[in-house]
Design brief:
Elements: E1 2-6, H1 12-16, H2 21-30, E2 33-37, E3 42-46, H3 50-64, H4 69-72, E4 81-86, H5 96-107, H6 112-121, E5 124-128, E6 131-136, H7 138-152, H8 157-169
Antiparallel strand pairs: 1-3, 2-3, 4-6, 5-6
Helix pairs in contact: 6-7, 6-8, 7-8
Length: about 180
């Protein structure tokens, strides 16, 4: 079985790693083979077990979206998942200034908003280009996704934080979708 995915040329060096160590580690831990076509910007993940191919592909996607290899390797845990949000989906005006403004809201002053979302949802968040990628459990991703969408749609930070803290204090049970 094989799975093909694009690679951002800016992230190719991170994926390969020093002397190929990151690529080799992905191959070893997932029992897959990774072929890189730099010219076309395409990665091919090959393996006998589709689950392993998908895990390796998700690790590559995470690295491609700005995560360090160390954080991307969290996806080896079958209870961890990768979720990707295209912020352009939430913009009324699809221009660079609006994108920067919304990403700035998600990051917050000195990274505060991003840090609060990560800590309260027990997730890791990467913001790269127009994407926000989240690594975590389904429950954590759900809450982080809600918070990010609320910020992207212009909800005040205080409202978003209260929503997260309420969900956390309820043991993440009984929180309602927006």
């Amino acid at each position: 079985m094989e799975y093909r995915l694009p690679i951002d040329p800016d992230r190719l060096g991170v994926l390969i790693g020093k002397k190929g160590e990151v690529k080799r580690k992905i191959e070893t831990l997932t029992n897959t083979k990774i072929e890189i076509n730099e010219k076309e910007g395409v990665i091919k993940v090959i393996g006998d077990d589709m689950d392993n191919v998908l895990v390796a592909s998700n690790i590559i996607k995470a690295i491609n979206l700005g995560f360090s290899p160390e954080k991307a390797f969290i996806l080896l845990d079958r209870d961890m998942n990768l979720h990707i949000i295209d912020i352009y989906t939430y913009l009324k005006k699809r221009d660079e200034n609006n994108l920067r403004r919304v990403l700035g809201r998600i990051i917050g002053e000195k990274g505060k908003a991003k840090r609060i979302i990560e800590e309260t949802t027990e997730t890791y968040i990467s913001i790269y280009r127009n994407y926000v990628a989240i690594i975590g459990s389904f429950e954590g991703i759900y809450l982080a996704d809600e918070a990010i969408k609320m910020l992207a749609l212009g909800k005040p930070h205080k409202v978003v934080y209260e929503h997260l803290f309420n969900a956390r204090s309820m043991g993440r049970r009984g929180f309602k979708a927006l």
